[in-house]
Amino acid sequence: MMIDGFEVVKTLARGHPIFGKKVYVVGFKQRWGVFFYVECSGDAVKCSCRKMEREGLPCRHIFCMLRHNNLSRIPDCCALRRMRRRGDTKAERLDEMKELGHQVFDLASEDAQEFQEIKEFLEGWLEHRRSGAVAVGDNNAADGDSVPPMTKKTKLIED
Question: Which of 1, 2, 21, 120 ranks highest by number of CB atoms within 10 Å?
Answer without folding.
Answer: 21
